[in-house]
Each structure stands twice: as structure tokens, then as C-alpha cells.
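Hi everyone, sorry if this is the wrong subforum. Our group has a chain we'd like a structural model of before ordering constructs, and none of us has done structure prediction before. Sequence below.
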Amino acid sequence: MKIKIKPNIIKEIKEFAKNECEKPTSKYGSGPFRYHFIPMVKYAKQLAKELGKDVEVVELAGWLHDIGSIIYGRENHHITSAKIAENKLKELNYPSKKIKLIKKCILSHRGSKNYKRISIEEKIISDADTMNCFDNIAGLFAAALVHEKLNQGEARKSVRRKLQNKWKQLCFKKSKEIIRPKYEAAMLLLNKK
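Answer:
Right subforum, don't worry. Here is the predicted structure as C-alpha cells:
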């Protein structure tokens, strides 16, 4: 008996991520879906297409890479996200070989951890996650001012330092090419005074 994969798996996973973000129990509210997941997936798909890699795998990993953070919180979210992804994709009868690659992408996506990224897809997810920081500078400031309780000057230095580190973490020349105008603009605006 052949197991049938659901035809709209990407749509279903995207809706799952959106619904989790919109739940009252979401750790960060609905903002991450709009300001992080959507642009991150856009970058992931763009890189996968340009590098000739499996766009479906990369898109699914993108929608699920931070889901553990939304449900359980930020600590070890790469691990909780990988487990949630595995369970959800198994439920949808997704091929186990592709589930393994998606889990690897999610487990190794965090720039703050020194994971060795082996596959191109792992590097794509890591880069797309990093690239999104340059689209969401307001979120970096919110974290610095509200969560880290820094003053305005300290927040400016903190955000500048984070963006410089993010720039250095990018794996692909193409990623830097895409994000360079935003990086240069941010460095100009956040220049030391």
C-alpha cells in the first residue's frame, strides 16, 4: 500500500505556522509570522532557486525553523522546532528522507550556535534567517530597548554589532549581494556618533 502525500503540504505547513503565531499562547504574538517567517521564507526560496536546490524542502524548513520558539520559547528552539517539524511532516506522510534534511536545516539554522552546516539547504536556511535581520531592524531595537533594557545609545551599539556579526555569518556570496544595500544603509545610519 502506497502512502499518499497531501498535495498542498506547503500551504498546510504555512497555515500551521500562522495559526501557532496567532494563538493567545504564542510567546511573541502574531508579529513573527509577518515580520520574520514571511520574509525569511522569501529569501530561502530565492536562494534555493538561484542555487538550484530543492525549493520545497527549503520552504518547509523556513515555515518551521522557529516554530518551537513560538510554542515553547526561545531557549533550544532549534531542537523543539526540529521535533515539531518531524511530527507534523510525518502526520502529513511527507517522505522521511526529506524530513531528515528539513530537520538538519532547522537544527543548524541558529547563528549563535557553532553548528557545522553540511548541505547547501542547511546553509540556505541559515542565510535566509540571518538576511531577515536586515529587514527587521525595528525588531532588533525592540529587543534591545524592551527585553535587554538598554538605553538608546547602548541599543544603537548593540544593534550595529549584531548586524555586523550577522553579515559575517552569511555563507553565500549571493546572500551578501542581495543584502548588501541594506547592510550598508544600516551601517551608515547606526554609525558611531
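For your construct planning: The mean pLDDT is 91. The first helix runs from residue 9 to 22.
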